[in-house]
Specification:
single chain, alpha/beta, 8 helices, disordered N terminus
Length: 268
Amino acid sequence: MNKHLIIYVLTLALSACGGSGSTKTPEDSSKVASSPDQPAKSADNLAIPNNQESDTYNILILGNSHVAGIEVLLTNIFTHAKADKTINIETRGGMFLDTIINNESIVEALQNNQWSHVILQGQKYSQSHSVLYPIDATVTWIQRAKAIGATPILFPEHPLKNRPEDAVYVHGIHTNIAQKQYSCVAPIGLTWNKALMLSPGLDLHSSDGNHAKQLGKLLTSLVLYETITGETADLLTFVDTLPGDASVQALFGQVSSQTIIENPPCDF
């Protein structure tokens, strides 16, 4: 049964986990992610392929340490919710997107397989919100994904502990990238903000205040699940092999779906 949450939208500052910095913090998320980069020419900016109803979900995940463990949780969610589908997920993690832009083995892995979705995490950003890092590599990965018919999904990571403004800042960077090169943006950090607003006692961060615990990774995975399939995470039933009890999993489904309603990931 779908439960509807009436949740007030937070007006937050701007930020999450990545690079380092210089000066000037713009007043809103759209300005934060602004850069001198010009929008791609139409010939180089294909529409987003819609693979939500594919019979087989072949998903490639690229990113740094924040993607660790997502593959296992996503596979578990899909196995439970999509028993009629074939699910294949591969992760190439531990790296920023710009550092692997010319990595032959990863480029070949992308181009020589029939991926339905490519999840891209690892765009550098300033934790102090004072430097805007180049987005060229992320744009190139988006173009490569669309060229093979895959849906590119940007993964703006969750905020640092006790810094909800990080989520707004990082989400803004990624939505601006998606405006320059059409792609989906999974509202991961914004969903974390909503969950922590409703239940401040949730233990989502690891001891370093940066990376996610298993519970936090589950929340991230639910946002990705709905972004990939277009089907509401709020309708998922309790899975005892996933982190969290029934009430926590229900809350996570609700906040994931509500945040996606408020921040649609894909403009197909």
